[in-house]
Specification:
The protein is mainly α. The chain is built from 52 helices and four strands. The strands form two sheets. It has a two-stranded antiparallel sheet with strand order 1-2. Strands 3-4 form a two-stranded antiparallel ribbon. α25 runs antiparallel to α27, α30 runs antiparallel to α33 and α37 crosses α38. The chain is flat and about 115 Å long. 33% of the residues are buried.
């Protein structure tokens, strides 16, 4: 017994691993005991041996070892233990032990379990619960161990006819379970599930009493549950029907069910009411099923196995399951009168079915009532079933992740007849969007084709038809803009072409080939002007999204936004040109004039010429081609939208392209050399003309023009010159908001004068005039109210409405008139001031947005051309924005600061062909600004830019200019109290350029006595600490020693003055000075190869005495300890020098005697070796 008692404790452990380990060791030990056991002979009642076994009436001791019998009884008793996980551990151990023993019968174990789990009236609720669960778990171990249907007789039984199981023991077990199910409602489901396990064990076995056992089960179950149908009886019926085909099931199921097969379609209505578990609604169901639970009843697993068995796909009944799901789930659990609890079950059933159905049968799950409930509970977070609805969404997303080919089918259901085209908008989720992102390219193409098919479907009403078309356009736009969706050329091109056809053309005839066939565009489609305008806008928007601004790597063409080295807009432009020539099937909505046609032809010729450019200018040619194509497409859309495009853009682009890319046609072998021609000095450069057009695009602030401008500039950035950068920088200059308003008013006046000359334009703009009239009326009404208040305040009434003709006129004297004049003048002044202030604010805001877009060009240039010398021309304008922008321009200043710190200051490659004088001027301006900086952020940015310019100048050998500016700034920092410089400004320079920092050592030391205060002087010594740490290797040893001697004198004098109370030094500052001295000692020892002593040890000894005698520092043990360390270090140095001198003298004496010093040394070293 001593070997097994310790194993029972770990059976209650909370760790599953420990419980299993204890079970294995216990069962293995008991098996060994049983093998060594000799069965006892049968004992007759009344004998002496029988008297010894008093109390053991279960018969386990007859055939089992004492340890085995004890363990069985203890394991059964342990099932009622409430300690931790004892019920789990003891039941597993008992199951495993019974499965290995062939010396016990099921009747014996049932008897022990029943006797050990009897309830008593004195028990508490918890004790009764433990006893009932002990009986349930104990009876379950008999089933799971196989003892219930074991056919082998007892191996060591005196009577070979004794079997381990019998029909009587089976009936007894079922009866005990049925009684147990009636005791507590919360035990009912798990007890009936155990009965189902017993039935499965009998069905799978080959016992001789199988039919009698099933018949007895059928009799006792339906006799006890007569006319009372519950989910448990349905589960038992589903298990018994396949095993008892000869039974008269129609009689058994009547009158509740019409068909003998319980899963027949005619029984679904009754089955739905039973599975809904609504007590009191039906005569065949009562309230003994217990309270509602958040888990599905186990009968649903049996039902799914009956309809959709996973192990036997050939037995799947998909059509019947569809009808079952519609009646039992959709119309019952999701019915209009169902409670939220039943709908919760419905969602669980849907999740279970989603994992079982095939892809072809997936639509049958998205039924009407389910979709209505799902959308309603997803739409608001305060709904009862919002959380389970989100779980359904997650399951669907995971399902699409595993089966991307079924994503298209799911989207059709979510946006179909039972769903909503605005599913994501209604539910406030991104379900459809997430499904699209998980689909493959073929699924996206199928979805697009289904949307195109819906264009030909006619709905009731013009408004509904228009809304559907707009929704389809929105879906196409979402596909393009969603970055998570895998992009593929074919479906992107299809969407862009569809937008182009719908927005720019009128289809006349049906085409059998070409673009119109793929787009499914038919002449029967009637499109409104509003829808065509939407398509044109979405076409430009999609092109903007598909055109990134820059490439990921320097010098490489961007992979995104191009297909086969061709821009998306070029693809669209090619399709538009093809449709323009197909006059048989389509008609263009725009009719250009003859002059415009000539201009367009010239633009097309220029584009064809640009496509032939190769070599180094290929990228710039692509940029100009993109600019021309974007201008042509935007011009066409603007003409249809009644917007007048700038007529000079195309002429400017064509002229610039012709000048920029000259062609030598004299070559007979068709080799073309493309170069950048040099225009006259008076005429603007071609690249400047193109950049001016791009800046004009940025002023219009549309996403399409902005994207095209950024992309075009990214391609032509390599051709930028100084004037180009100056043109961009000029846009960043600060202007007075009043000047901006004046410019806008001038433009408005010129536009007004042009409108007055043209009566037709007035008629076309009547709607806008009406809107402006309304605004004017509101403003006039407000002004009128102010005037009336002014008149009333001075005793005069305004004429409001109809006046009484007979009323006497009230006269106003001169004083009242003067007061009225002053009030009226104040009213008009305030109105004028408000108007000007609002205009100034709007103009300033628009200017800020425009500068923000211009900074994108600056960022593109610094990224694409990091070695360009023109980057220097960007420093000061960016500094101006970063340091002098107001609070309302915070985003602008942050962006400028980011370009300076992350682009220019971190350039890895040196600039080429730098203008030294200009770089010196910039560095000088940076230091002037740094001395007057108003914030630490501004000073840090100036410091980074200064280091960048220093790198540029040092690469071309201008170190003297750099040092001179830093000397001047150092003097300003030390001597001027209002200086904005800080120590970090100089530390960054010394850290980045240690060699130049070493050359500043004397300047720092010589300037320190002139410091404006003690704190600045201590900061000077901190700089010297940095210089000694980083830069001593850059100097000559003699220079280092001489400087350290000079530093020693300065530090001694500084600390002496502190001891005399001439200066006020804190303990921390004294410590820093001593640390500097220790650093100097170490540096001197590294470079001091001579015998010169640069340290005055006597002076430091004297200083130590003064510190001890000082009232202020004498009590500081840390300062005295540091001073002692300095003395020790100097003494060690002196002793080392003394030993070195002595050794040299001795060597000279030995050499004078004729004995080489090396031989003498070897002789001394050989002595201890020989002795050892």
């Amino acid at each position: 017994m001593a070997t097994t008692l310790s194993l029972f404790w770990n059976l209650s452990s909370a760790s599953k691993k420990e419980r299993i380990s204890a079970t294995v060791r216990l069962v293995n030990s008991l098996e060994q005991f049983q093998e060594q056991h000799t069965p006892k002979p049968e004992v007759s009642p009344g004998s002496e041996d029988d008297e010894e076994n008093v109390g053991s009436t279960d018969g386990l001791d007859v055939l089992n070892a004492h340890d085995v019998a004890y363990s069985i009884r203890r394991l059964i008793r342990g099932l009622a233990s409430p300690r931790e996980s004892s019920r789990l551990g003891f039941s597993v151990a008992l199951t495993e032990l019974l499965s290995r023993l062939d010396t016990v019968t099921s009747a014996q174990v049932i008897s022990i379990i029943v006797d050990g789990s009897k309830t008593q009236g004195s028990m508490t609720g918890q004790e009764e619960r433990d006893v009932l669960f002990a009986r349930l778990f104990g009876l379950a171990t008999i089933i799971h161990s196989g003892l219930l249907v074991r056919q082998t007789p007892l191996s060591t039984s005196p009577s070979s006819a004794t079997n381990s199981s019998s029909l009587e023991s089976y009936k007894e077990l079922v009866n005990h379970l049925l009684v147990l199910a009636e005791k507590k409602s919360w035990l009912r489901e798990c007890t009936w599930w155990t009965i189902g396990q017993a039935i499965d064990a009998v069905i799978k076995s080959s016992v001789s009493w199988k039919e009698e056992a099933l018949a007895s089960t059928l009799e006792v179950v339906y006799e006890r549950e007569k006319n009372i149908w519950t989910p448990e009886t349905v589960a038992i019926t589903l298990k018994l029907q396949p095993a008892m085909p000869k039974h008269d099931w129609k009689k058994t199921l009547a009158p509740t069910f019409k068909d003998s097969a319980i899963l027949a379609s005619s029984n679904f209505s009754s089955l739905g009411h039973i599975l809904k578990e609504t007590p009191g609604d039906d005569e065949w169901q009562q309230s003994n099923t217990g309270t509602w639970k958040a888990q599905l009843h186990y009968v649903w697993n049996i039902i799914f196995d009956g309809f959709l068995p996973e192990s036997e796909p050939e037995r799947r009944r998909n059509a019947l399951f569809q009808e079952f799901f519609r009646v039992v789930v959709d119309e019952t659990l999701f019915g209009a009168s169902s409670s939220p609890e039943r709908k919760f079950w419905g969602f669980l059933v849907f999740k279970k079915a989603l994992r079982r159905v095939d892809g072809t049968d997936l639509p049958m799950l998205f039924t009407k009532n389910f979709m209505r409930s799902w959308i309603n509970h997803l739409s608001h977070k305060d709904r009862h079933l919002h959380k389970i609805s989100l779980d359904v969404v997650k399951d669907i997303q995971d399902f699409v992740q595993q089966n991307p080919q079924l994503g298209y089918t799911l989207i059709l259901q979510l946006t179909g007849i039972h769903g909503s085209q605005q599913f994501d908008k209604l539910t406030k989720t991104k379900t459809v969007e997430s499904i699209l992102s998980r689909m493959d390219g073929d699924g996206i193409m199928q979805y697009i084709q289904s949307l195109l098919e819906q264009m030909d479907e006619s709905d009731n009403g013009v408004v509904a038809e228009e809304a559907k078309k707009i929704w389809i356009a929105d879906q196409f736009t979402a596909l393009v803009r969603n970055g998570a969706i895998p992009k593929r050329e074919d479906w992107i091109q299809l969407i862009l072409n569809w937008f182009a056809v719908q927005g720019l053309y009128l289809v006349k005839r049906k085409s059998a080939k070409g673009l119109l066939v793929a787009l499914r565009v038919t002449p029967s489609s009637v499109l409104s002007e509003n829808f065509r305008r939407i398509c044109r806008g979405k076409l430009l928007g999609c092109l903007a999204d598909l055109t990134p601004s820059t490439a990921s790597q320097k010098g490489d063409m961007p992979k995104e936004g191009t297909v086969d080295d061709e821009f998306w807009i070029s693809k669209v432009f090619t399709a538009v040109n093809h449709l323009d020539k197909d006059s048989k099937h389509v008609t263009s909505l725009s009719e250009p004039s003859q002059e415009e046609q000539l201009l367009l032809q010239q633009a097309h010729k220029t584009i064809d010429h640009l496509r032939q450019v190769d070599g180094k200018m290929r990228e710039a040619a692509k940029g100009v081609e993109l600019l021309l194509s974007a201008s042509l497409l935007h011009r066409r859309c603007a003409n249809l939208d009644d917007d007048e495009p700038d007529a000079g853009i195309l002429e400017t682009c064509i002229a610039a392209a012709a000048t920029m890319f000259s062609t030598d046609n004299k070559s007979k072998n068709r080799r073309k050399s493309h170069t950048i021609s040099q225009p006259d000095s008076d005429s603007p450069k071609s690249i400047d003309m193109l950049v001016d057009v791009l800046i004009g695009f940025l002023e219009k602030s549309t996403s399409y023009l902005r994207a095209m401008a950024n992309k075009s500039f990214s391609c032509i950035a390599s051709a930028a010159t100084e004037t180009t950068i100056d043109l961009i920088v000029a846009q960043l200059e600060r202007r007075n908001p009043a000047d901006l308003v004046a410019d806008e008013e001038d433009e408005t006046e010129s536009a007004t004068s042009e409108e007055e000359e043209d009566d037709d334009d007035d008629a076309e703009g009547s709607d806008e005039d009406n809107e402006s009239d309304l605004d004017d009326n509101e403003a006039a009404l407000e002004l009128r109210m102010k005037i009336e208040d002014a008149l009333k305040a001075n005793g005069a009434e305004a004429a409001i409405g109809d006046t009484d003709e007979e009323s006497e006129e009230e006269l106003v004297d001169d004083e009242q008139m003067m007061a009225i004049d002053e009030h009226l003048a104040e009213v008009f002044r305030s109105r004028s001031g408000d108007s000007k202030q609002s205009k100034n604010v709007n103009a300033q805001r628009e200017a800020t947005h425009f500068k923000n877009r211009v900074l994108d060009l600056v960022d593109i240039f610094t990224r694409r051309m990091p070695q360009s010398p023109h980057n220097l021309r960007l420093v000061l304008p960016l500094i101006e924005l970063a340091t002098k922008s107001g609070n309302d321009e915070r985003q602008l200043s942050d962006k400028a600061r980011g370009i300076l710190n992350n682009r220019l200051a971190k350039l890895k490659d040196p600039l080429q062909e730098v203008d030294q004088d200009y770089a010196k001027t910039i560095l000088d301006e940076l230091h002037i600004r740094a001395r007057k900086a108003h914030s630490s952020d501004a000073l840090a940015t100036l410091s980074h830019c200064s280091l960048f310019i220093c790198r540029v100048l040092t690469n071309v050998g201008c170190e003297k200019s750099v040092l001179q500016l830093y000397r001047e700034s150092l003097a300003d920092f030390m001597t001027r109290k209002a200086s904005s410089l800080n120590i970090t400004f100089f530390k960054d320079f010394i850290t980045r350029y240690p060699a130049l920092g070493w050359r500043l050592r004397d300047d720092v030391l010589d300037t320190s006595p002139k410091a404006i205060n003690v704190y600045r002087k201590c900061q000077a010594f901190q700089l010297l600490n940095t210089i000694l740490t980083l830069s001593t290797s850059a100097g000559d040893s003699q220079d280092v020693l001489s400087f350290i001697l000079k530093l020693q004198t300065s530090v001694l004098h500084f600390i002496d003055s502190a001891c005399d109370d001439q200066v006020s030094l804190s303990a921390a500052q004294i410590k820093d000075l001593f640390k500097l001295v220790m650093l100097s000692v170490r540096q001197a020892s590294k470079v001091d190869n001579s015998n010169q002593n640069v340290w005055d040890s006597e002076a430091w000894r004297t200083l130590h005495g003064r510190l001890v005698a000082s009232k202020r520092f004498g009590s500081s043990t840390a300062i005295l300890k540091l001073c002692s360390q300095v003395e020790s270090a100097l003494q060690a140095k002196h002793s080392k020098q003394h030993n070195s001198i002595a050794s040299k003298r001795k060597a000279e004496e030995v050499e004078g005697e004729g004995v080489p010093s090396d031989a003498k040394r070897k002789k001394k070293k050989s002595v201890p070796t020989s002795q050892s």
